[in-house]
RNA sequence: GUCACAGUGGCUCAGCUGGAUAGAGCAACGGUCUUCUAAACCGUAGGUCGUGAGUUCAAGUCUCACCUGUGACACCA
């Protein structure tokens, strides 16, 4: 429920001549310190029209305002501080959460519209790295946030399954590889061939010519080349699936680069028809100088198409297939200009949906300050990180809760949860230097901290032996419960903001704050004690658990009931 | 060189549309488990918010300049 409206309604009659309701709404703020109330109204802007000092205005307004809906309204300096009626707020909020359960916070902002999300997109024959983790978990979380606000996300894994690297890979495989090796451990060995190719072609540049030749054969539909390509692709996908399983991520489409091969000509033709294609230095480009952008390369001087051509083709295909409201691309920040160009070309083509193309960039992961590079074999393998995290979680369980049932399953939930949460808790655009100890930390501001908080809440509910019934009396008025109640009530706003900014970290931070408030309450208040308020307290515990689980689920993190 | 993004306590980061004494977590030090899971809680210490101007009643937040770091700058994706 929106308690801010109470404040607006109270203020409107007394300041109505000077400012309208919309302005009041904008000016009202939430004080940083809760001793200053729940909402505050600064009086500065009234000073000019009323010709009085802000402090005096605050004092005068307090005298005039109808205080009945509130616990109290006081003037503190130039501010009017509103304290809400805790009993009412508590009752209304808890009842709402307990009634709506996992649907608390659901909102219809999308009207069921499709929103394709380009995410994850690993390259065939290369391992999934920490860099792909970012795109995968950010995209997955945004998809869940979209679904909660009644959009229909379409998760597209735009696989890197085409390109000159396949020429290199075929050459390397034929020279140094074996079928048995690839079958045994596809990614490791394919990567090994690829890295070796890049080592050897420094001294033997003719390798590059061979690679080009093989890629040409692949493009021309040569049987041997196609067979190898399809085999590399399917073996790689099997490996990818193992990791996606661990992360709990699924996709609606695996249409990658190769999927657009036979659709590219239409896109290029359309550019020609619309007279957007120009020749420059032997290549064909779209001039974007009026957007202050570099020209976009559509066709190389040898006639081959490029990344941009393919993305343009895919953008148009997605519009025709999904009739999307927005089309999202969860891709690293270093490709910012690429997407600016993409939008500009679509605009030039006369499509009114150009601005619905939205690049959701994220920061770089480095190791010891250096950019990771597959070519040089400098990668952080996601599978290894996940397994390390799970092992560590398993050790923690042995140390702290050795009698726990299904330890392996919980270790997986906690370990993987830690890795996902670590990636989502900070602003997307922040770069971070990879540090295993930091990623798999279980204390402080981490995923396991939130999971643990929920497990404690669950434990209390189990031990109470009572069913929390949504129609009981849920009046709690102490300060520590109050902090929790305000946060519970704020959850729908938090989801809105996360959606508006395409920012899962908003949810992650919220879950940390809520967990912290609850742990504080837990430490100081005996819940399973019949002091006449036990049902109300259990209602609070249940509500916290529901919202923590929901918030974690929006991040793609699971919530073990015990840990 | 041009453009973009960033610069907050030892480290990692919050700070939404400018608003009341700048908040957490790690690390350090000191407390709290015979009672609901101590993966927790409480306390102490630690900051000229890169630098300098400007706009405003009010600037970590907006504008400009400079410094530092990172990234992008057509035939890779």
List the helices and strands and how they pair.
Layout: H1 4-15, H2 21-27, E1 39-42, H3 46-50, H4 54-64, E2 70-76, E3 79-84, H5 86-100, E4 114-118, H6 130-148, E5 152-156, H7 165-176, H8 179-184, H9 186-200, H10 206-219, H11 223-247, H12 264-273, E6 277-280, E7 283-286, E8 296-299, H13 307-322, E9 327-330, H14 336-348, E10 357-360, E11 365-367, E12 370-371, H15 382-400, H16 407-424, E13 432-433, H17 436-439, H18 447-464, H19 479-501, H20 504-524, H21 534-555
Parallel strand pairs: 4-5, 4-9, 9-10, 11-13
Antiparallel strand pairs: 1-3, 2-3, 6-7, 7-8, 11-12
The protein binds one RNA strand of 77 nucleotides through strand 8, helix 13, helix 14, helix 15 and helix 18.
